[in-house]
Amino acid sequence: MYICICNAVTDRDIQRAVEEGACSLNCLQETLAVSTCCGQCADNATACLERALHETQATATA
Ligand code: FES
Fold first, then answer.
1. Which ligand 1 atom is nearest residue 39's CA?
2. Are 23 and 14 in contact (CB under 8 A)?
3. CB of 39 closer than 6 angstroms to any ligand 1 atom
4. Which domain covers residue 32, as residue numbers?
5. What is the distance in A from the centroid of ligand 1 to the CA of 49?
6. I need a labelling partner for 50 at 20 to 30 A (CA). Which of 3, 28, 38, 59 fits?
7. Ligand 1 touching residue 40 (CB < 6 A)
8. Is ligand 1 within 6 A of the CB of residue 5?
9. Contact 24/45 with Cβ under 8 angstroms?
10. 61: helix, coil or strand?
11. pLDDT in tens, the chain (62 residues)
12. pTM of this prediction?
């Protein structure tokens, strides 16, 4: 699912970035350019980031 239309960033892109070490919206902006154009996706990108961080932590502790 697309999270950032301006930069064609999907939830899978964000999940992959988190698995590779991204841990903040700033990190995602640097690596994927999410939320660097109109900014309308910032809330959804942050929610997706938090889900991905939670899933990554759950996988790491399983
Ligand atoms: S939708 Fe993400 S910057 Fe515009």
1. 3
2. no
3. yes
4. 2-61
5. 15
6. 38
7. yes
8. yes
9. no
10. helix
11. 999 999 999 999 999 999 999 999 999 999 999 999 999 999 999 999 999 999 988 887 77
12. 0.92
